[in-house]
Write a structure and sequence with these properties.
- By secondary structure, the protein is mainly alpha-helical.
- Helices cover about 70% and strands about 10% of the residues.
- The chain has a 3-stranded mixed β-sheet with strand order 1-2-3.
- Helix 9 (about 285-300) links the parallel strand 2 (about 270-280) and strand 3 (about 305-310).
- Helix 1 runs parallel beside helix 6 and helix 2 (about 45-70) packs antiparallel against helix 6 (about 170-200).
- It is elongated and about 90 Å long.
- The two termini are about 30 Å apart.
């Protein structure tokens, strides 16, 4: 596999896809939140209220993710010489915390309250209709996120599952996980609503509310940990580093790579530092020419490398 194939795609491609996924999810969640809130007020269903809180949290998260994408596009300047890529991780971290507090914690609280003080079910069919529509809209938004993930995974020659675990772009991953929980949550709320109507007991409604809250809390904690790792200069996966090492020694004048480190500056942007040994270099001009040749060749082959710092060392 070539180093270009084994490296993250160029920044612009992922960013445009990330913004499209976030906007699709925001449009769907805004409409769904209004519908769910109205249905929750009419039916008195705690599961519908939990889903309303969940969807409000998701819509707020998409706003944060939109800010993240926009701010991370700013060009490097004297105050940020490596660019603004980590802005995406910061705002995605805020979005994950919001999901935990608004979606997860409040849903769990509402579930406990519903167990202690159950409410009667009203306007059953309105709740059913809203949840069916929500399932359809959330499903469509999830399809957009899945297609984006598949394109990014194909560009890296890895599976979607591996991409979810190691992607440097938290935007699409957040949208995908949110949409997946949306579909599961709406399905649970629908089942709970039907059981409430059939059995006359509010317990299924309350239990579904608790499950929705715990699911949201779990996903939020996973996203928080992922963005914390990226904010603290997480290393690029070793297979990319090895591919780059092999490509570097193919450059005329580079005899070997003594050491190499690569960290993410942002989605699709990598900082690489390496100690290299040189061959056939008689003077300082030869050294400078070999280093410049390596930077030019690698930069052309791997556009994702925003900075390549090479230090010649004795062989």
């Amino acid at each position: 596999m070539s180093v270009a194939a084994a490296s993250p795609p160029a920044p612009s491609a992922d960013r445009d896809e990330s913004l499209g996924s976030a906007m699709a999810a925001l449009a769907a969640n805004t409409a769904i939140a209004i519908a769910k809130g109205t249905a929750a007020a009419l039916t008195g269903s705690p599961a519908l209220l939990a889903e309303t809180l969940h969807t409000i949290a998701d819509a707020g998260n998409e706003v944060f993710l939109w800010v993240a994408v926009r701010r991370s596009r700013h060009a490097a300047d004297p105050s940020h010489p490596f660019g603004y890529g980590p802005e995406r991780y910061y705002w995605a971290l805020i979005a994950a915390i919001g999901m935990f507090l608004v979606g997860g914690a409040l849903s769990v609280w509402e579930g406990v309250h519903a167990l202690l003080d159950p409410r009667p079910l009203e306007d059953f069919w309105i709740g059913v209709a809203v949840l069916v529509v929500a399932l359809a809209l959330d499903g469509l938004s999830r399809v957009v996120a899945v297609r984006t993930l598949r394109r990014q995974a194909a560009a890296r020659h890895i599976t979607v599952g591996k991409l979810l675990r190691e992607s440097p772009d938290p935007t699409v991953v957040t949208v995908y996980l949110e949409d997946s929980i949306d579909v599961l949550g709406a399905g649970l709320a629908l089942v709970a609503l039907i059981l409430h109507r059939v059995t006359g007991s509010a317990v299924p409604d309350a239990l579904a509310t608790l499950v929705i809250g715990f699911m949201l809390g779990y996903v939020a904690l996973k996203l928080t940990g992922r963005n914390r790792d990226l904010l603290t200069n997480q290393a690029v996966p070793e297979r990319y580093v090895e591919a780059l090492r092999r490509r570097l020694v193919e450059v005329p004048g580079i005899a070997g790579v003594a050491s190499m480190e690569a960290v993410y500056l942002g989605p699709g942007e990598v900082l690489v530092t390496a100690d290299v040994t040189l061959e056939h270099c008689q003077n300082a001009d030869d050294v400078a020419a070999a280093i410049e040749r390596a930077r030019t060749d690698i930069g052309r082959d791997v556009p994702a490398i925003a900075r390549l710092q090479l230090t010649p060392v004795p062989g």
